[in-house]
Design brief:
CATH topology of the largest domain: 2,3-Dihydroxybiphenyl 1,2-Dioxygenase, domain 1
CATH architecture of the largest domain: Roll
Strand content: 35-45%
Domain VOC: 3-127
Organism: Rhodococcus wratislaviensis
Number of helices: 3
Helix content: 10-25%
Shape: globular
Structural class: alpha/beta
Protein name: VOC domain-containing protein
Strand order of the largest sheet: 1-4-3-2
Pfam families: Glyoxalase
Radius of gyration: 15 Å
Order of helices and strands: EHEEEHEHEEE
């Protein structure tokens, strides 16, 4: 069975969030978007639902994590090269995000991370396919 993954994240400003991630090259699925959320497409089986906080609260019990004080998750996306890692993270920082964590360089694996406009941590990782065991 092939599974799909939908990650749900609270956001403060839908327009600013769409502009930020759109500027990083992500696309949005209009079918699952409205004035309170958007479905950011990662690939054909994975989407990130970005919901304004009031809409996000419809799906949870308790409060929303204060990302200025805690990290609720590490979201890691792959890149095709070291250069793509640097390009994506540098673009995120230039677009209003902030650097997060330390550079990870293990030779066969390279990664950096950023916080988006709402403080969610996004790791961007490249791994040499030849180094992955068969």
């Amino acid at each position: 069975m092939s599974r799909m993954l939908f990650v749900n994240l609270p956001i403060k400003n839908l327009d600013a969030t769409k502009q930020f991630f759109g500027g990083l090259g992500f696309e949005f699925n209009a079918t699952f978007s409205d004035d309170s959320c958007t479905a950011m497409v990662i690939n054909e089986s994975t989407s990130v639902m970005l919901l304004v906080e009031s809409r996000f609260k419809d799906f949870i019990e308790g409060g929303i994590c204060d990302t200025s004080k805690a990290v609720e998750a590490l979201l890691c996306i792959s890149a095709d090269s070291r250069e793509e890692v640097d390009s994506l993270v540098d673009k995120a920082i230039a677009s209003g995000g902030s650097a997060w964590g330390k550079l990870q360089d293990e030779g066969f694996m390279y990664g950096r991370a950023f916080r988006d406009l709402d403080g969610h941590v996004w790791e961007v990782m490249w791994m040499d396919p030849a180094a992955v065991p068969a």
